[in-house]
Amino acid sequence: MKVLVTGANGMLGQVLCPVFEDNGLYVIPAGHKELDVTNYKTAKAAIENIMPQIIIHLAAYTNVDKAEEEFETAIKINKNGTKNIAKISKEINAIMVYISTDYVFDGEKNTPYTPADTPNPLNKYGLSKLEGEKAVQENTDKYYIVRTSWLYGPDNRPQGKNFVDTMLNLAQKNDEIKVVEDETGSPTYTIDLAMGILGIIGKPFGIYHISNEGETSRFNFAKEIFKLAGLNPELTPIQSKEYMTKAKRPKYSSLQNSIPIRHWAEALKGYIDYKESLNQ
Questions:
Q1: What are 148's strand-pairing partners?
Q2: Alpha-carbon distance values, 177 to 161, 180, 233 (Å)
């Protein structure tokens, strides 16, 4: 089966492509240079030249804070680009997989969000991704919308960063690290998400939640990172209002998984072990 991956150079794409290849699928990775999803005409020509059976749409605007100022750009990519891919998917009878986010929710619940819960994003990034979800639902029938959260994993891009790597880097440079304690969610290892996406192909079309099992605050997530890495910086809990980000984050955004997946602490250990193996 032929699988086209848009945004293949991003953090998720870097692990998803080899995971799918290792499971016998023929993967065509496409970065922005190969496939501009915001240009319907050129995207259609490129995709019709490949004629994939599955399109995994990872190309996205993902800077949560900058989206507050660059909403037009976020909408261009996350809504309009996604609409283009959805339309083309339907035209060539391909299955579409769209990656969305826990930030489509407002955080007012205190139990994990289900796929049936009503979205109500607090920030413009979340709104742009929700508009992408709607574009998928309105323009194709054979789709999987996959919401995930707090992603981290290997990333070879110069600008690539995630919460785990940021914490590890801070611990090398600072004696004291301040981390918010009033945001709770489900950290997700990209390898587990990639395996989860592979696992839902063939299931009924619709919305799925895939994140590592369990939930934690960002503060306790940082504590576990340092514990597993054998580091002991002074860790100070703060409230999110003290952190002063441009975009408001939901206080609670844990997702109820649609499929079985390992616990976030076990997944984190896997990632820390992987990083340590690179230094040996």
A1: 101
A2: 17, 10, 7
Tell me if residue 113 is catalytic: no
Check residue 242 and give its pLDDT. 84
Sign of CA dihedral 25, 14, 9, 13: positive
Residue 104's alpha-carbon distances to 160, 223, 248, 258, in angstroms, are 23, 27, 12, 17
| Number of other residues whose CB lies within 10 A of the CB of residue 179 | 21
Count CB neighbours of 157 within 10 A. Answer: 10
User: Is the per-residue pLDDT at 172 higher than 90?
Assistant: no
Alpha helices in the chain (DSSP H): 11-22, 40-50, 71-75, 82-91, 124-139, 163-173, 190-200, 218-229, 240-243, 264-278
261: its two tokens: 């997946």
Calpha distance 37→22 (Å, rounded): 26
Task: Say whether pLDDT at 96 is over 90.
Answer: yes
Read off the pTM: 0.95
Task: Quick: pLDDT tens for 193-206.
Answer: 999 999 999 999 99
Q: Which among 98, 103, 125, 208 is annotated as catalytic?
A: 125
